[in-house]
Design a protein that fits this description.
Chain B: Keywords: Membrane, Transmembrane, Transmembrane helix. The complex is a heterodimer of chains A (234) and B (203). By secondary structure, chain A is α/β, with parallel strands linked by helices. Helix content of chain A is 37%, strand content 27%. Chain A has one domain: P-loop containing nucleotide triphosphate hydrolases (Rossmann fold), CATH 3.40.50.300. Chain B has 203 residues and is mainly α. Chain B starts with a helix and ends in a 6-residue tail after the last helix. Classes of the chains: A alpha/beta (234), B mainly alpha (203).
């Protein structure tokens, strides 16, 4: 697995006339496990942590590197390695039909349109969406949309998949379906989630609270830590 | 609008599917110009017959034809009513038929041409603009995204209108327009992030 390295990486945003607000405190991590979970309350900083990994958010200080490549200086190369799946697939699906959306992902790597179409159909088939190739992306169920968004990411053959709360908008059956797809991947997975069952399936789990990683360890320990934290706050 | 412009590509092997995108776009432009310029109700009937024939040639499903016609129908009825009032029945019928023909002609293009084929063609056509610093890929992608964003924008408009209604504010334009604009801008940011994450625009 490639090494995800954060060296005192911090994110701050300016507040008009009121200095800065820390979104993520200086964080140092070395992540090499196959499946890494990130849990924490809304607004705790876990999505910011995830977005640092492919340059969607740049560190205000410190450094983030993926397999030795700096996410700021070598952004394009890092994005080729790190696929990113968003909470709301509607924002991610930008073409009218399923096969066209996958083709959009492939435009950069497959120049011939016939070969691109064939490859896109293959990607859809591999993700259980072959029957929906020519359907409008707006006609799909929530679970199918999220699987399509994930297929658009996987079409680029990333070595790491970062998924930011991919099951938050889904019902239980679709959560299981998307979860099974994510955990069936050969790629390294960084999963930001509120679903503690999914977190429990990871090899290592980080708990983020108030812009800091407050726990880093086994899934069982992380879930217990997070549950205690919520109980104390509640 | 969304029925006409997006989500309608029907894969196939008809003569219209096999025609180069440039020929289809040129054909659509010439036909549309003729429909607009020729002012005669008998020609309006001919144009409608031609566009129906094109839809049949492209094996456009009847359901799609109906959805497209339904989208144009409301505008056609209102425009024709004004024409009737100002110029009489013949002009109203001509306007009604012309608008239906324009909708069907556009549908025959979108049903037989995928957005990616259109993007490839636009990229080729925009290539000479490279000398003045224009990125053809970016131009083509912008056009495709604009078309692709229409159904999503319409969905946001419907949701925002329903939310305003649920709060009993359906007669207050501010309760509808402000959240609509904010949500559209937020969606644009999210889509930008998603494209960025997919590495689109990196090259």
């Amino acid at each position: 697995m490639p090494t995800i390295q954060l060296d005192a990486a911090a994110v701050r945003v300016p507040l008009p006339g009121r200095g800065e607000r820390e979104i993520l405190a200086p964080t140092t991590l070395t992540l090499t496990e196959h499946r890494i979970g990130v849990i924490g309350a809304n607004g705790s900083g876990k999505s910011t942590l995830a977005r640092l990994l492919n340059g969607l958010v740049r560190p205000s200080s410190g450094r983030v590197s993926i397999g030795g490549r700096d996410v700021v200086r070598e952004g394009a190369a890092v994005r080729r390695m790190v696929g990113f799946c968003f909470t709301d697939p509607a924002a991610q699906l930008v073409m009218p039909t399923c096969v066209e959306d996958i083709e959009l992902s492939l435009r950069r790597t497959v120049k011939d349109s016939a070969a691109r179409r064939e490859r896109a159909l293959g990607v859809l088939a591999a993700n259980g969406l072959a029957d929906h190739a020519h359907d409008s992306v707006h006609s799909l169920s929530g679970g199918q949309r999220q699987l399509l968004a994930l297929a658009g990411v996987l079409a680029l053959d990333p070595t790491i998949v970062v998924a930011d709360e991919p099951t938050t908008l889904l019902d239980r059956a679709n959560t299981r379906r998307v979860g099974d797809t994510l955990f069936g991947l050969d790629q390294q997975l960084v999963l930001v989630t509120h679903d503690l069952e999914l977190a429990a399936r990871c090899d290592r789990v980080l708990v983020v609270d108030s812009s800091r990683v407050v726990f880093d360890g086994s899934p069982r320990g992380a879930v217990a830590h997070y549950t205690d934290m919520v109980d104390v706050d509640g | 609008m969304s029925d006409l412009m997006a989500g309608l590509h029907q894969p196939g092997d008809t003569i219209l599917h096999r025609l180069p995108v440039g020929a289809k776009v040129l054909g659509l432009a010439v036909l549309s110009l003729a429909i607009v310029v020729v002012r005669d109700v008998r020609w309006a009937v001919v144009f409608l017959a031609v566009t129906l024939l094109l839809a049949a040639l492209g094996r456009v499903p009847l359901r799609s034809v109906w959805r497209a016609a339904r989208g144009v129908l409301l505008i056609a009825v209102v425009a024709s009513a004004f024409q009737w009032w100002w110029y009489g029945a013949e002009k109203a019928v001509e306007t009604f038929l012309d608008l239906l023909s324009l909708g069907l002609a556009a549908l025959s293009l979108t049903a037989t041409t995928s957005v990616n084929e259109m993007v490839d063609a636009l990229t080729r056509w925009a290539r000479p603009l490279r000398v003045v610093g224009v990125d053809p890929d970016r131009v083509a992608l912008t056009v495709a995204l604009t078309i692709g964003a229409l159904p999503g924008t319409i969905a946001i408009a419907r949701e925002t209108r329903d939310a305003a209604r649920a709060r009993g504010l359906d007669r207050n334009p501010r309760a509808y327009l402000s959240p609509f604009v904010i949500r559209v801008v937020a969606r644009a940011h999210e889509s930008g992030d998603a494209l960025h994450a997919r590495g689109i625009g990196d090259d």
